[in-house]
Amino acid sequence: NAGVTQTPKFQVLKTGQSMTLQCAQDMNHEYMSWYRQDPGMGLRLIHYSVGAGITDQGEVPNGYNVSRSTTEDFPLRLLSAAPSQTSVYFCASSYSLTGGTEAFFGQGTRLTVV
Amino acid sequence: KNEVEQSPQNLTAQEGEFITINCSYSVGISALHWLQQHPGGGIVSLFMLSSGKKKHGRLIATINIQEKHSSLHITASHPRDSAVYICAPSYGGSQGNLIFGKGTKLSVKP
Is the sign of the CA dihedral B99, A34, A83, A62 positive or negative? Predict the structure, then answer.
């Protein structure tokens, strides 16, 4: 039972570099989301998707792009990394958007931008 | 604005003590999640509840919808319970479904 698989676990980028954080789930969940976790703050929503081909912005979308070509995969792209994007990133999935179902999280990606 | 307040922010307990972590939220919700995060680790869902009380082993979660308040209790605490506990109400709707508290860092000493 893989659940939510998130890669890589750690990454160091130079300012201006681009990269993609991968997220895959094998539970056939429609709802997937990306969050960032910063010290002293709760997790904040970056982007989310309610199904293949459908994505929308969350609270802090600037500097990030997403796509959802399949139900299983929801990659997060940093187009031009900035030190302000240093954070821990979590991907999550759940069966529905209404919140009445359990949420599953990946193991997190600790990103440092220098 | 939907707000989530957790208390305490930090909690140190001796092994065997009864632990209570509180969560208050500002508007009506469809459900509330309690999550656990070990240092350097991922996030694990402990409970999802929309009313009443749920129990899983030594963990108990309660919610009072009218008072917009939830509590997480740990009975007979153990050092392996040391982690950050996060309350996350779900408001549903089109802007994503979870709002997260800042977490309560629990340390249980042997």
Answer: negative
